[in-house]
Amino acid sequence: MYLSDRPQSFTVEPDETILQAGLRQHLALPFGCQSGGCASCRVRLLDGNVAHRLPPPALSTAEIDAGYILMCLAQPQSDLRIDLHQPADLDALRPQIWPCRVQMRSWLAHDVLRLQLKLPKGKTLHYLPGQYIDLLLDDGRRRSFSIANAPNGEFIELHVRVTPGGRFAQWAAHEMPDRAMLRFEGPLGAFYLREDTRPIVMIAGGTGIAPLRAMLQSLLPQSQRPVHLYWGVRAQRDLYLDAELTQLAQAHPQFAYRPVLSEPDTGWNGATGFVHAAALRDHADLHTHAAYLSGPPAMVRAGKDAFIAAGGDPDQLFYDAFDYAFETWPGVG
After folding, report:
1. At what angle do helices 275-282 and 297-309 cross, to 10 degrees?
2. pTM to 2 decimal places
3. How far apart are CA 275 and CA 203, in angstroms?
4. Which of 87, 149, 74 is nearest to 114 (CA)?
5. 76, 1 in Cβ contact below 8 A?
6. How far apart, in Å, are the Cα atoms of 190 and each of 70, 78, 251, 283, 292?
7. DSSP code string of 51-64
8. How far apart are CA 321 and CA 306, in angstroms?
């Protein structure tokens, strides 16, 4: 096994996936759910052949045709050469386990709770805007949350959707002590802003706005790269960052923001329907664009297909699909 963008090679045993072998040999490889659902471990296969343990659920036909595989499911059938498409400083972003204190807790919407986590004095979490962390719960389970702010050396912010069946969310909203101590592992994931000059189309669903907000906080003050953000929610009360995003659009001419409601309130004059469809109505030809999608798996799948159908390049398609189906990631051995 050869990594085209690193001077490294490693051996994969017959019963291992590429990801299992790489992690066993302490390589800094991107990963997330380890079950094919999130595509954090998506890489391009340049040479060789693999067999997936099961059809890769997170990959579209266009991605497979473009040569992408999921390392968590792929088993080599020959010598391989793969392209990680990862930043040069990935080794410096190796996940670690951190203690933290809940510095602030507040409601952003009727069902979205904001948590600000403070690291120990003198410690800084190095991450790329768009990445996420796993909170480590006392019963051994994990809960994944995207980091909702750009690195600031002070705190990290999480947006927690509170649902009736969400055990951690219900505890955090109603039982968590003030200034509670937590542990998390991070940074995780391969969803981050790539350095480029292409115009960007961002599509978010629900709390999928969180990692895109982190990207915008980092990008807009130092780049004139055009960005169009589409945020899909059910009703106006779910647009918990609407004022902030509107102010960003007013302050940065290169940034356009359009909220989209699937169950519009009476009197709503904005965009309605599926959020990816609203984006395509404004951008029928995306062959010169990069796309960043974040939200429920169904929305991400539809958005990926729409991006490819509009001429988008799979190499410029980046996404983070998450849902309560992925509430408990397995631990890393």
Report:
1. 20
2. 0.87
3. 7
4. 149
5. yes
6. 12, 26, 29, 26, 12
7. EESS--TT--HHHH
8. 16
Nearest Cα residue to 203 out of 271, 127, 259, 144: 259
Total length of the chain: 333
CA separation for the pair 266, 43 (Å, rounded): 45
Going along the chain from its start, the domains and CATH numbers come out as 2-83 (3.10.20.30), 90-190 (2.40.30.10), 200-325 (3.40.50.80)
The values of phi and psi at residue 133, to 5°, are -125, 160
CA of residue 97 relative to chain centroid, distance:
19
pLDDT tens per residue, range 15-71: 899 999 988 988 877 777 788 877 878 888 999 999 998 888 888 888 888 889 999
State the pLDDT at residue 326.
38
Residues 79 and 294: their CA atoms lie apart, in Å, by 34
| Weakly modelled stretches of the chain, pLDDT under 50 | 324-333
Q: Tokens 């904001």 belong to which residue?
A: 114
Q: How far is CA 258 from CA 71, 131, 275, 299, in A?
A: 35, 23, 9, 16
CA distance 271 to 63: 29
